[in-house]
Amino acid sequence: MTDIEKTPYEVLGGDKAIRELVVCFYELMDSLPEAKELREIHPKDLSGSINKLYKFLSGWLGGPSLYINEYGHPRLRARHMPFPIDETQRDQWLYCMFEAMKQSQVNAELQEQLKRAFTQTADHMINQRSMNITH
């Protein structure tokens, strides 16, 4: 099977690689001052968040539909509505995910593909205006 025939899940390295990417993402979010506002809207214990993102990404990237099998349709925007998400949180989420992909050594072509997809999805999660707008 060529890389063109493989799913992003397979190109990334499957289950273990997805789990490592997600753990790296949350370690970055938990430790980087650049992710302070994003970290503040997450629970103190990140284990549930890690598990849900891992399960979601598994199916979203073309692997087993772990999230859907357990929780039903992701309905990402609706599930994130209780949390204040503006451009700051979006940018911090993307920063941590892009850095996690770099640190996890995701191949460059897949990184570019995922950056576009993650950015589009993150834009859709915004549910309030940024408080940092100046006139």
Polypeptide structure, described:
The chain is mainly alpha-helical and 135 residues long. The protein has a single domain (8-125), classed as Orthogonal Bundle (Globin-like). The protein is built from eight helices and no strands. The protein has helices spanning 8-12, 14-31, 36-40, 47-60, 66-71, 76-80, 87-103, 108-125. The longest helix is centred in the first third of the chain and has 18 residues, at 14-31. The protein is globular, with a radius of gyration of 15 Å.
Number of domains: 1
Q: Can you write the helix and strand succession as a string?
A: HHHHHHHH
What is the CATH H-level superfamily? Globins
Structural class: mainly alpha
- Helical content stands at 55-70%
Give the strand content.
under 5%
How many helices? The count is: 8
> How many E strands?
0
Could you report the average pLDDT, rounded to the nearest whole number?
91
CATH architecture: Orthogonal Bundle
Might you state the CATH topology name? Globin-like
